[in-house]
Automatic annotation (TrEMBL):
<dbReference type="GO" id="GO:0051287">
    <property type="term" value="F:NAD binding"/>
</dbReference>
<protein>
    <recommendedName>
        <fullName>Aspartate-semialdehyde dehydrogenase</fullName>
        <ecNumber>1.2.1.11</ecNumber>
    </recommendedName>
</protein>
<dbReference type="GO" id="GO:0004073">
    <property type="term" value="F:aspartate-semialdehyde dehydrogenase activity"/>
</dbReference>
<dbReference type="InterPro" id="IPR005986">
    <property type="entry name" value="Asp_semialdehyde_DH_beta"/>
</dbReference>
<keyword id="KW-0457">Lysine biosynthesis</keyword>
<keyword id="KW-0791">Threonine biosynthesis</keyword>
<feature type="binding site">
    <location>
        <position position="182"/>
    </location>
    <ligand>
        <name>NADP(+)</name>
    </ligand>
</feature>
<dbReference type="Pfam" id="PF02774">
    <property type="entry name" value="Semialdhyde_dhC"/>
</dbReference>
<feature type="binding site">
    <location>
        <begin position="11"/>
        <end position="14"/>
    </location>
    <ligand>
        <name>NADP(+)</name>
    </ligand>
</feature>
<keyword id="KW-0521">NADP</keyword>
<feature type="active site" description="Proton acceptor">
    <location>
        <position position="242"/>
    </location>
</feature>
<keyword id="KW-0560">Oxidoreductase</keyword>
<dbReference type="GO" id="GO:0050661">
    <property type="term" value="F:NADP binding"/>
</dbReference>
<dbReference type="GO" id="GO:0046983">
    <property type="term" value="F:protein dimerization activity"/>
</dbReference>
<dbReference type="GO" id="GO:0009089">
    <property type="term" value="P:lysine biosynthetic process via diaminopimelate"/>
</dbReference>
<dbReference type="InterPro" id="IPR036291">
    <property type="entry name" value="NAD(P)-bd_dom_sf"/>
</dbReference>
<feature type="binding site">
    <location>
        <begin position="160"/>
        <end position="161"/>
    </location>
    <ligand>
        <name>NADP(+)</name>
    </ligand>
</feature>
Amino acid sequence: MGFKVAVVGATGNVGREMLNILEERGFPVGEVVALASRRSQGTEVSFGDRTLKVKALETYDFSDTDIALMSAGGNVSKEWSPKIGKQGCVVIDNSSAFRYDPEVPLIVPEVNPDAIEGFSKKNIIANPNCSTAQMLVALKPLHDAATIRRVVVSTYQSVSGAGKEGMDELFTQTRAVFVADPVEAKKFTKRIAFNVIPHIDVFMEDGTTKEEWKMVAETKKMLDPKIKVTATCVRVPVFIGHSEAVNLEFEKPITADEARDILREAPGCLVIDKHEDGGYITPIESAGEDATYISRIREDSTIDNGLNLWIVSDNLRKGAALNTVQIAELLVARGLIQPKQKAA
């Protein structure tokens, strides 16, 4: 007896990754349906060794579907997630549309699994921002051990965070540089090839960007409202994998060795931290992997109880598709949903 799962936005980077991960992890599906907008209707996507024809979201009936994995952008989610939820289908939404709604759980299974119990108010569960998700996987066990007071994070975010258009722009601009063609910036505000851009999402009144604000708000909602967080989010010319330089101030003493031991035992974490050439992780090694990697763990002598970390993860997986599927697995493991269609 399996669950009927719809992947909304199945033709996008994250939607395709969701289909891959459902199959890879052996999620108990009875049927998988690929959905997208009308213009993508009939497009074919892969699910294991099967090919699925994409159906139109606008005409799909969710009444016999158990779970909708939503990766179609905030505007689509705002319109459709409440309608889908009312049909008795649980929406796990990858956009920012419902992350800050107090009636919608915001979940990273390694961080705050118990918060999932509140999903039934709207039948919607939110997936956090990719940069927040990987950071909190590493911070949660350290917070449990020594209580984090303050977080200062600088991100180095890959272009895949901006979707297929972002990846295409980096490729096209890089080729243009090599053949001395004009370099056009369309998706990003400035040239991304051989450059870095300290601007992700829109600017807010106080000078922060929305991406930076998300990291602050989501950390407080999922980990601890008392934590102080300041972020600088930067787009870099990397195809897949977000990196973060994180400075932490704790209430209680904690050494680098203690942190290393804690993180080695923590779910979802993989410590690669040798004090030698190449003894650390970079984005290219994280691509296609599920773990949140932690390197460069060291004490910060400029503050009491301070640590520095380097955190890297595949943003399409743990930052998006993998975390979404893990939330679905958590629903099933806790017996919070049952398949609507009984086995024949």
